[in-house]
Amino acid sequence: MNRIKRFFLPAIIFMIANCVRVNAATVDTVLTHSAAMNKDLKAVVIRPDSYSANKKFPVLYLLHGFSGNYSDWILKVPSIRSLSDQYNLIIVCPDGGFASWYFDSPVSKEWQFETYVAVELVNWVDKHYSTIQNRNGRAITGLSMGGHGAFYLAFKHLNTFGAVGSMSGGVDIRQFSDAFGVEQVLGKYSEYPERWEKNSVINMLYMIKPNSLAITFDVGYDDFMYPSNEALHKELMYRKIQHDYTVRPGAHTWEFWGNSINYQALFFSRFFNKPVN
């Protein structure tokens, strides 16, 4: 009887350990360099438990909002680790500065975040991790300022990103002419209206064609961003550009975004796993 106990106890412990093993993804905080801004910036990189140098993994770039930083997502929505495991993808959370809006600023060389995120960081990640190094293996999304940034970068870098999303995105920056720091990177609207017009996502749809990007975005019905997102949806419909658009109860909150990322991760997983023509 004792021999039976000795045999079964380790086996039971092993099974329990494997059954309760959750959020096994590895979270790296890495230091990257931007030549465009001549400075180092941190980023969070989440690797799935299945990660191996012998396999190539898709990458989801996940952008923070106004006044945030690279650590926002992992600190406020730690469950994104499980999404990395569930869908076998790498998640990268860049630092986009306090109020960069992910532009290459014509005002200051200290704000060159389009180049940093869409070029320098992508190249750094591809060099240091085992990734699918083409647009079929890259997606980008974000919240609020980061939702704007995701659309903005994907539209301008179609050869880099194959799928894009936005959560409560600031898709029409013209409504923030005196708020959220946009004038710091573009200059005052009253002095440079053409910059604001040209760099508002809702005015950039001419850059994409039907089926050139896999698109998903959502917003809360009580969010102050709702009207501009609704307008973007209608403009995409008018142009016959296929997209997923969802309006749910909610406001401009982490509760909404923490829920939203689950649906978007599924959308991106389906994109990553579709047959390539």
Tell me the name of the CATH class: Alpha Beta
Percent of residues in β-strands: 15-25%
Q: Main sheet: which strands, in order across?
A: 1-2-4-3-5-6-7-8
> What global shape is seen?
globular
Helix content: 25-40%
Assembly classification: single chain
Please provide the ordered H/E string of secondary-structure elements: HEEEHHEHEHEHHEHEH
Annotation field: number of helices: 9
CATH topology: Rossmann fold
Distance between the termini: 61 Å
DSSP strand count: 8
Uncertain parts: 1-23
Chain-averaged pLDDT: 92
Q: Which keywords apply here?
A:
single chain, 277 residues, alpha/beta, 9 helices, 37% helix, disordered N terminus
Structural features, described:
The protein has 277 residues and is an alpha/beta fold. It has a single domain, classed as Alpha/Beta hydrolase fold, catalytic domain (Rossmann fold), CATH 3.40.50. It has nine helices and eight strands. It has helices at 2-19, 72-76, 80-87, 113-128, 145-156, 182-186, 193-198, 226-238, 254-272; strands at 26-34, 39-47, 59-63, 90-93, 138-142, 163-167, 214-220, 244-248. It is globular and about 55 Å long. Residues 1-23 have low confidence and may be disordered.
